[in-house]
Amino acid sequence: MPTAARLGAVALSAAVLTGTAAPAFASSASTGASLSASPSASPVSIPVGLYGTSDPTYDGVWRQGLSLLALHSQGVTPAASAVDWLTGQQCADGGWPSYDADPAKGCAAATEDTNATSAAVQALAALGGHDDAVSKAVAWYRKVQNADGGWSYNPGSASDANSTGLVVSALAAAKADPASVARGGRTALDGLHGFQLGCSAAAAEQGAFAYQPDKSGKLVANDAASAQAALATGSGFLPVPVGTAAASTATAASGTTACADSEQAAAQYLARRLGSGQEHLTSQLAGASATPDYASTAWAALSLAGTGHVDQARKAVDWLSANSAGWARGAGASADAVLILSAHATGVDPTRFGAANLVAQLEAAGPAPAATAAAGPTASTTAASTATAEKSSSSFNPWWLIGVGLVAGAGIGMYISFNRSRRRA
Length: 425
Known about the structure:
single chain; mainly alpha; Glycosyltransferase; two-stranded antiparallel ribbon; 43% helix; 3% strand; disordered C terminus; membrane; signal; Prenyltransferase/squalene oxidase repeat-containing protein; transmembrane helix; Terpenoid_cyclase/PrenylTrfase
Protein backbone atom coordinates (compact mmCIF):
# COMPACT_ATOMS: atom_id res chain seq x y z
CA MET A 1 0.00 0.00 0.00
CA PRO A 2 2.74 1.85 0.33
CA THR A 3 1.55 4.19 -1.34
CA ALA A 4 2.03 8.89 -4.65
CA ALA A 5 3.72 7.31 -7.22
CA ARG A 6 2.78 4.15 -5.56
CA LEU A 7 1.34 6.47 -5.34
CA GLY A 8 -0.05 3.04 -4.31
CA ALA A 9 5.38 3.01 -3.89
CA VAL A 10 7.78 5.01 -2.01
CA ALA A 11 10.67 2.75 -1.20
CA LEU A 12 10.81 2.00 2.46
CA SER A 13 12.51 -0.81 4.24
CA ALA A 14 10.62 -3.46 6.14
CA ALA A 15 12.27 -2.18 9.29
CA VAL A 16 10.75 1.24 8.84
CA LEU A 17 7.33 -0.16 8.03
CA THR A 18 7.22 -2.49 10.98
CA GLY A 19 8.66 0.02 13.38
CA THR A 20 6.77 3.18 12.44
CA ALA A 21 3.68 4.40 10.72
CA ALA A 22 5.69 5.48 7.70
CA PRO A 23 4.14 5.21 4.25
CA ALA A 24 4.57 1.97 2.39
CA PHE A 25 3.61 3.03 -1.10
CA ALA A 26 5.53 3.21 -4.21
CA SER A 27 6.40 6.56 -5.49
CA SER A 28 3.60 7.99 -4.79
CA ALA A 29 1.18 3.44 -4.23
CA SER A 30 0.67 3.20 -3.48
CA THR A 31 2.43 1.38 -4.16
CA GLY A 32 2.73 6.42 -3.11
CA ALA A 33 4.75 8.76 -1.33
CA SER A 34 2.81 10.28 1.42
CA LEU A 35 4.85 13.46 1.58
CA SER A 36 5.02 16.11 -1.09
CA ALA A 37 8.31 16.39 -2.92
CA SER A 38 9.98 19.28 -4.61
CA PRO A 39 9.78 18.79 -8.37
CA SER A 40 12.97 17.72 -10.08
CA ALA A 41 13.68 16.80 -13.66
CA SER A 42 13.93 13.13 -14.53
CA PRO A 43 17.45 12.08 -15.56
CA VAL A 44 15.97 9.23 -17.61
CA SER A 45 14.40 9.40 -21.04
CA ILE A 46 10.68 8.66 -20.71
CA PRO A 47 9.56 5.85 -23.03
CA VAL A 48 6.89 6.48 -25.64
CA GLY A 49 3.52 5.43 -24.27
CA LEU A 50 4.38 5.80 -20.57
CA TYR A 51 2.40 8.13 -18.33
CA GLY A 52 4.29 10.58 -16.15
CA THR A 53 7.56 12.43 -16.46
CA SER A 54 9.59 11.14 -13.54
CA ASP A 55 12.25 8.45 -13.53
CA PRO A 56 10.33 5.19 -14.12
CA THR A 57 13.00 2.93 -12.64
CA TYR A 58 11.03 2.07 -9.53
CA ASP A 59 7.43 2.65 -10.55
CA GLY A 60 7.06 2.60 -14.34
CA VAL A 61 4.79 -0.44 -14.54
CA TRP A 62 2.95 0.45 -11.35
CA ARG A 63 1.99 3.95 -12.47
CA GLN A 64 1.13 2.74 -15.97
CA GLY A 65 -1.27 0.14 -14.60
CA LEU A 66 -2.93 2.64 -12.28
CA SER A 67 -3.15 5.25 -15.04
CA LEU A 68 -4.85 2.85 -17.43
CA LEU A 69 -7.26 1.75 -14.70
CA ALA A 70 -8.13 5.34 -13.80
CA LEU A 71 -8.74 6.42 -17.39
CA HIS A 72 -10.76 3.28 -18.10
CA SER A 73 -12.99 4.08 -15.11
CA GLN A 74 -13.78 7.40 -16.79
CA GLY A 75 -14.69 5.92 -20.14
CA VAL A 76 -11.41 6.91 -21.77
CA THR A 77 -9.90 4.54 -24.35
CA PRO A 78 -6.12 4.75 -23.93
CA ALA A 79 -3.71 5.02 -26.83
CA ALA A 80 -2.52 1.71 -28.22
CA SER A 81 1.05 2.78 -27.43
CA ALA A 82 0.18 3.02 -23.72
CA VAL A 83 -1.23 -0.50 -23.60
CA ASP A 84 1.56 -1.87 -25.79
CA TRP A 85 4.17 -0.39 -23.48
CA LEU A 86 2.63 -2.18 -20.52
CA THR A 87 2.27 -5.55 -22.23
CA GLY A 88 5.79 -5.20 -23.61
CA GLN A 89 7.18 -5.01 -20.08
CA GLN A 90 5.92 -8.47 -19.11
CA CYS A 91 8.61 -11.06 -18.49
CA ALA A 92 8.62 -14.40 -20.27
CA ASP A 93 7.54 -16.24 -17.11
CA GLY A 94 4.51 -13.99 -16.58
CA GLY A 95 5.61 -11.47 -13.96
CA TRP A 96 6.36 -7.81 -14.50
CA PRO A 97 9.42 -5.89 -13.27
CA SER A 98 9.12 -2.45 -11.74
CA TYR A 99 10.59 -1.20 -15.02
CA ASP A 100 12.68 -2.74 -17.77
CA ALA A 101 14.62 -0.24 -19.85
CA ASP A 102 15.44 -2.87 -22.48
CA PRO A 103 12.76 -5.58 -22.65
CA ALA A 104 14.48 -7.20 -25.63
CA LYS A 105 17.18 -8.49 -23.30
CA GLY A 106 14.69 -10.33 -21.12
CA CYS A 107 13.97 -9.96 -17.42
CA ALA A 108 16.19 -10.83 -14.50
CA ALA A 109 14.10 -12.81 -12.01
CA ALA A 110 15.32 -10.64 -9.15
CA THR A 111 13.71 -7.57 -10.72
CA GLU A 112 10.21 -9.01 -10.94
CA ASP A 113 7.78 -7.18 -8.73
CA THR A 114 4.53 -8.60 -7.34
CA ASN A 115 3.10 -5.12 -6.82
CA ALA A 116 3.79 -3.87 -10.33
CA THR A 117 2.40 -7.15 -11.65
CA SER A 118 -0.79 -6.56 -9.67
CA ALA A 119 -1.34 -3.14 -11.23
CA ALA A 120 -0.65 -4.54 -14.69
CA VAL A 121 -3.00 -7.51 -14.23
CA GLN A 122 -5.85 -5.38 -12.91
CA ALA A 123 -5.43 -2.91 -15.77
CA LEU A 124 -5.34 -5.54 -18.50
CA ALA A 125 -8.24 -7.44 -16.97
CA ALA A 126 -10.31 -4.24 -16.92
CA LEU A 127 -9.42 -3.33 -20.51
CA GLY A 128 -10.14 -6.85 -21.74
CA GLY A 129 -8.56 -8.74 -24.61
CA HIS A 130 -5.40 -9.73 -22.75
CA ASP A 131 -6.30 -13.14 -21.37
CA ASP A 132 -2.97 -14.75 -22.24
CA ALA A 133 -0.94 -12.09 -20.43
CA VAL A 134 -3.23 -12.26 -17.39
CA SER A 135 -3.13 -16.07 -17.27
CA LYS A 136 0.67 -16.06 -17.42
CA ALA A 137 0.75 -13.64 -14.51
CA VAL A 138 -1.49 -15.87 -12.42
CA ALA A 139 0.80 -18.82 -13.14
CA TRP A 140 3.78 -16.73 -12.07
CA TYR A 141 2.05 -15.78 -8.83
CA ARG A 142 1.48 -19.45 -8.09
CA LYS A 143 5.15 -20.16 -8.71
CA VAL A 144 6.50 -17.45 -6.40
CA GLN A 145 3.94 -17.80 -3.56
CA ASN A 146 5.55 -18.24 -0.16
CA ALA A 147 4.89 -21.16 2.17
CA ASP A 148 2.74 -18.96 4.44
CA GLY A 149 0.38 -18.32 1.52
CA GLY A 150 1.56 -14.73 1.01
CA TRP A 151 3.92 -12.82 -1.25
CA SER A 152 6.82 -10.43 -0.90
CA TYR A 153 7.58 -7.38 -3.02
CA ASN A 154 10.33 -9.20 -4.91
CA PRO A 155 10.07 -13.01 -4.79
CA GLY A 156 12.40 -14.73 -2.35
CA SER A 157 11.80 -12.46 0.64
CA ALA A 158 9.40 -12.71 3.55
CA SER A 159 5.74 -12.03 2.79
CA ASP A 160 4.22 -8.65 3.66
CA ALA A 161 0.62 -7.49 3.96
CA ASN A 162 0.73 -4.91 1.18
CA SER A 163 2.13 -7.25 -1.43
CA THR A 164 -0.15 -10.09 -0.39
CA GLY A 165 -3.21 -7.85 -0.52
CA LEU A 166 -2.29 -6.55 -3.96
CA VAL A 167 -1.78 -10.08 -5.25
CA VAL A 168 -5.15 -11.20 -3.89
CA SER A 169 -6.77 -8.27 -5.71
CA ALA A 170 -4.97 -9.20 -8.93
CA LEU A 171 -6.09 -12.82 -8.63
CA ALA A 172 -9.68 -11.73 -8.09
CA ALA A 173 -9.52 -9.40 -11.10
CA ALA A 174 -8.16 -12.29 -13.15
CA LYS A 175 -11.06 -14.48 -11.97
CA ALA A 176 -8.66 -16.81 -10.19
CA ASP A 177 -10.23 -17.65 -6.83
CA PRO A 178 -7.70 -16.55 -4.15
CA ALA A 179 -8.89 -19.44 -1.97
CA SER A 180 -7.67 -21.86 -4.64
CA VAL A 181 -4.17 -20.40 -4.98
CA ALA A 182 -2.16 -22.19 -2.33
CA ARG A 183 1.29 -23.33 -1.34
CA GLY A 184 1.70 -26.15 1.18
CA GLY A 185 -1.94 -26.00 2.16
CA ARG A 186 -1.86 -22.26 2.85
CA THR A 187 -4.08 -20.21 0.54
CA ALA A 188 -3.67 -16.62 -0.57
CA LEU A 189 -6.44 -15.63 1.84
CA ASP A 190 -4.67 -17.47 4.67
CA GLY A 191 -1.57 -15.48 3.86
CA LEU A 192 -3.49 -12.21 3.92
CA HIS A 193 -5.33 -12.95 7.16
CA GLY A 194 -2.03 -13.87 8.80
CA PHE A 195 -1.15 -10.16 8.94
CA GLN A 196 -4.46 -9.00 10.44
CA LEU A 197 -4.95 -8.26 14.13
CA GLY A 198 -7.95 -10.14 15.47
CA CYS A 199 -10.14 -10.32 18.56
CA SER A 200 -7.19 -10.78 20.92
CA ALA A 201 -5.75 -7.38 19.98
CA ALA A 202 -6.58 -4.16 21.79
CA ALA A 203 -10.02 -2.94 20.77
CA ALA A 204 -8.63 0.08 18.93
CA GLU A 205 -6.38 -2.13 16.77
CA GLN A 206 -8.75 -4.96 15.93
CA GLY A 207 -9.04 -5.36 12.17
CA ALA A 208 -5.78 -3.54 11.42
CA PHE A 209 -2.97 -5.08 9.38
CA ALA A 210 0.70 -5.21 10.23
CA TYR A 211 3.15 -4.80 7.37
CA GLN A 212 5.11 -7.76 8.72
CA PRO A 213 5.50 -9.26 12.20
CA ASP A 214 8.11 -7.45 14.26
CA LYS A 215 11.29 -9.17 15.45
CA SER A 216 9.42 -10.90 18.25
CA GLY A 217 6.71 -12.14 15.91
CA LYS A 218 4.13 -9.65 17.14
CA LEU A 219 1.73 -7.96 14.75
CA VAL A 220 1.83 -4.17 15.10
CA ALA A 221 -0.99 -2.16 13.51
CA ASN A 222 0.21 -0.18 10.49
CA ASP A 223 -2.12 2.29 8.80
CA ALA A 224 -0.39 2.15 5.42
CA ALA A 225 -0.58 -1.64 5.36
CA SER A 226 -4.18 -1.58 6.55
CA ALA A 227 -5.25 0.95 3.93
CA GLN A 228 -3.96 -1.11 1.04
CA ALA A 229 -4.54 -4.65 2.25
CA ALA A 230 -8.14 -4.09 3.37
CA LEU A 231 -9.52 -4.01 -0.17
CA ALA A 232 -8.46 -7.61 -0.63
CA THR A 233 -10.30 -8.89 2.47
CA GLY A 234 -13.43 -9.09 0.35
CA SER A 235 -11.45 -10.04 -2.76
CA GLY A 236 -11.95 -6.52 -4.08
CA PHE A 237 -9.96 -5.12 -6.97
CA LEU A 238 -9.60 -2.00 -9.12
CA PRO A 239 -11.44 -0.13 -10.39
CA VAL A 240 -13.82 -0.25 -7.44
CA PRO A 241 -17.36 0.16 -8.83
CA VAL A 242 -19.24 3.31 -7.88
CA GLY A 243 -21.15 2.88 -4.64
CA THR A 244 -20.33 -0.79 -4.04
CA ALA A 245 -22.70 -2.26 -1.43
CA ALA A 246 -23.51 1.16 0.01
CA ALA A 247 -26.24 -0.29 2.19
CA SER A 248 -23.67 -1.70 4.61
CA THR A 249 -22.14 1.70 5.36
CA ALA A 250 -23.68 1.88 8.84
CA THR A 251 -21.60 -1.04 10.07
CA ALA A 252 -18.29 0.80 9.88
CA ALA A 253 -19.72 3.99 11.29
CA SER A 254 -21.44 2.27 14.20
CA GLY A 255 -18.30 0.87 15.78
CA THR A 256 -20.03 -2.45 16.30
CA THR A 257 -17.43 -5.11 17.06
CA ALA A 258 -16.73 -7.32 14.06
CA CYS A 259 -13.28 -8.58 14.97
CA ALA A 260 -14.02 -12.08 13.71
CA ASP A 261 -15.12 -10.77 10.31
CA SER A 262 -11.95 -9.88 8.41
CA GLU A 263 -13.61 -7.56 5.92
CA GLN A 264 -15.80 -5.64 8.34
CA ALA A 265 -13.10 -5.47 11.01
CA ALA A 266 -10.69 -3.93 8.51
CA ALA A 267 -13.32 -1.40 7.45
CA GLN A 268 -14.08 -0.47 11.04
CA TYR A 269 -10.40 0.04 11.81
CA LEU A 270 -9.93 2.35 8.81
CA ALA A 271 -13.09 4.27 9.61
CA ARG A 272 -11.89 4.79 13.18
CA ARG A 273 -8.45 5.93 12.08
CA LEU A 274 -9.79 8.34 9.50
CA GLY A 275 -12.35 9.70 11.94
CA SER A 276 -9.72 10.35 14.58
CA GLY A 277 -7.48 12.12 12.07
CA GLN A 278 -9.90 14.63 10.53
CA GLU A 279 -10.64 12.13 7.72
CA HIS A 280 -7.07 11.47 6.67
CA LEU A 281 -4.21 9.22 7.72
CA THR A 282 -0.77 10.42 8.75
CA SER A 283 2.74 9.04 8.53
CA GLN A 284 5.78 9.64 10.67
CA LEU A 285 9.42 8.64 10.44
CA ALA A 286 11.66 8.58 13.47
CA GLY A 287 12.67 12.07 14.43
CA ALA A 288 10.15 13.73 12.12
CA SER A 289 6.76 15.28 12.71
CA ALA A 290 3.62 13.50 11.59
CA THR A 291 2.43 14.60 8.17
CA PRO A 292 -0.64 13.79 6.04
CA ASP A 293 -0.31 10.50 4.18
CA TYR A 294 -2.23 11.27 1.01
CA ALA A 295 -1.53 7.96 -0.69
CA SER A 296 -2.65 5.89 2.29
CA THR A 297 -5.73 8.05 2.66
CA ALA A 298 -6.67 7.42 -0.97
CA TRP A 299 -6.15 3.68 -0.56
CA ALA A 300 -8.19 3.72 2.65
CA ALA A 301 -11.03 5.32 0.71
CA LEU A 302 -10.76 2.67 -1.99
CA SER A 303 -10.77 -0.10 0.60
CA LEU A 304 -13.75 1.33 2.46
CA ALA A 305 -15.73 1.83 -0.74
CA GLY A 306 -14.77 -1.63 -1.93
CA THR A 307 -16.00 -3.21 1.29
CA GLY A 308 -19.32 -1.35 1.16
CA HIS A 309 -18.66 1.71 3.32
CA VAL A 310 -19.04 4.42 0.72
CA ASP A 311 -20.18 7.18 3.08
CA GLN A 312 -17.07 6.72 5.20
CA ALA A 313 -14.88 6.64 2.11
CA ARG A 314 -16.49 9.78 0.74
CA LYS A 315 -15.37 11.79 3.76
CA ALA A 316 -11.75 10.88 3.05
CA VAL A 317 -12.13 11.70 -0.65
CA ASP A 318 -13.66 15.07 0.22
CA TRP A 319 -10.62 15.76 2.42
CA LEU A 320 -8.31 14.77 -0.43
CA SER A 321 -10.21 17.02 -2.83
CA ALA A 322 -9.58 19.97 -0.54
CA ASN A 323 -5.99 19.20 0.44
CA SER A 324 -4.10 16.99 -2.01
CA ALA A 325 -3.32 19.37 -4.89
CA GLY A 326 0.26 20.07 -3.85
CA TRP A 327 0.99 16.41 -3.25
CA ALA A 328 -0.48 15.41 -6.59
CA ARG A 329 1.61 18.00 -8.44
CA GLY A 330 4.77 16.60 -6.89
CA ALA A 331 3.82 12.94 -7.26
CA GLY A 332 2.59 13.01 -10.84
CA ALA A 333 0.64 10.48 -12.86
CA SER A 334 0.18 7.79 -10.25
CA ALA A 335 -1.18 10.33 -7.77
CA ASP A 336 -3.70 11.57 -10.31
CA ALA A 337 -4.61 7.97 -11.05
CA VAL A 338 -5.24 6.88 -7.47
CA LEU A 339 -7.19 10.05 -6.76
CA ILE A 340 -9.36 9.41 -9.84
CA LEU A 341 -9.95 5.84 -8.72
CA SER A 342 -10.93 6.90 -5.19
CA ALA A 343 -13.20 9.63 -6.55
CA HIS A 344 -14.82 7.17 -8.95
CA ALA A 345 -15.46 4.66 -6.17
CA THR A 346 -17.29 7.25 -4.08
CA GLY A 347 -19.25 9.03 -6.78
CA VAL A 348 -17.12 12.18 -6.75
CA ASP A 349 -16.46 13.92 -10.07
CA PRO A 350 -12.67 13.72 -10.74
CA THR A 351 -12.93 16.47 -13.35
CA ARG A 352 -13.90 18.87 -10.53
CA PHE A 353 -11.58 17.65 -7.81
CA GLY A 354 -10.94 20.78 -5.81
CA ALA A 355 -9.63 23.14 -8.47
CA ALA A 356 -8.26 20.32 -10.65
CA ASN A 357 -9.50 18.27 -13.57
CA LEU A 358 -7.66 15.08 -12.69
CA VAL A 359 -8.74 13.28 -15.85
CA ALA A 360 -7.37 16.00 -18.10
CA GLN A 361 -4.16 16.12 -16.09
CA LEU A 362 -3.62 12.40 -16.44
CA GLU A 363 -4.46 12.40 -20.15
CA ALA A 364 -1.94 15.20 -20.64
CA ALA A 365 0.74 13.19 -18.83
CA GLY A 366 0.77 10.45 -21.46
CA PRO A 367 -0.05 9.68 -25.09
CA ALA A 368 -3.24 11.21 -26.47
CA PRO A 369 -6.11 8.81 -25.82
CA ALA A 370 -7.72 6.91 -28.66
CA ALA A 371 -11.12 8.13 -27.46
CA THR A 372 -12.52 10.09 -24.55
CA ALA A 373 -15.80 9.65 -22.71
CA ALA A 374 -18.89 10.41 -24.80
CA ALA A 375 -20.00 12.98 -22.25
CA GLY A 376 -18.07 15.36 -20.05
CA PRO A 377 -14.74 17.18 -20.37
CA THR A 378 -12.01 15.85 -22.62
CA ALA A 379 -8.29 16.32 -22.44
CA SER A 380 -8.35 18.83 -25.28
CA THR A 381 -10.21 21.39 -23.16
CA THR A 382 -7.52 21.67 -20.52
CA ALA A 383 -4.48 19.74 -21.74
CA ALA A 384 -2.62 22.84 -22.85
CA SER A 385 -2.60 24.29 -19.36
CA THR A 386 -2.05 21.05 -17.50
CA ALA A 387 0.63 19.61 -19.75
CA THR A 388 3.07 22.39 -18.91
CA ALA A 389 2.66 21.87 -15.19
CA GLU A 390 2.89 18.10 -15.50
CA LYS A 391 5.96 18.11 -17.74
CA SER A 392 7.78 20.65 -15.59
CA SER A 393 7.45 18.61 -12.44
CA SER A 394 8.57 15.20 -11.39
CA SER A 395 6.88 12.54 -9.32
CA PHE A 396 10.17 11.25 -8.06
CA ASN A 397 10.04 11.47 -4.32
CA PRO A 398 13.07 11.82 -2.07
CA TRP A 399 11.55 9.16 0.18
CA TRP A 400 12.89 6.72 -2.40
CA LEU A 401 16.41 7.79 -1.56
CA ILE A 402 15.69 7.62 2.14
CA GLY A 403 14.19 4.16 1.74
CA VAL A 404 17.14 2.88 -0.26
CA GLY A 405 19.55 4.20 2.30
CA LEU A 406 17.64 2.58 5.11
CA VAL A 407 17.56 -0.70 3.29
CA ALA A 408 21.26 -0.65 2.63
CA GLY A 409 22.00 0.21 6.22
CA ALA A 410 19.65 -2.38 7.66
CA GLY A 411 20.53 -5.08 5.19
CA ILE A 412 16.94 -5.91 4.37
CA GLY A 413 14.81 -5.77 1.26
CA MET A 414 12.97 -2.61 0.49
CA TYR A 415 9.31 -2.29 -0.15
CA ILE A 416 8.40 0.08 -2.88
CA SER A 417 2.63 0.69 -1.54
CA PHE A 418 0.61 4.55 -2.74
CA ASN A 419 -1.06 4.73 -2.06
CA ARG A 420 1.00 2.18 -4.49
CA SER A 421 1.01 6.13 -2.89
CA ARG A 422 4.59 4.95 -6.71
CA ARG A 423 2.83 4.19 -5.29
CA ARG A 424 1.87 1.70 -2.90
CA ALA A 425 -1.61 5.52 -5.51
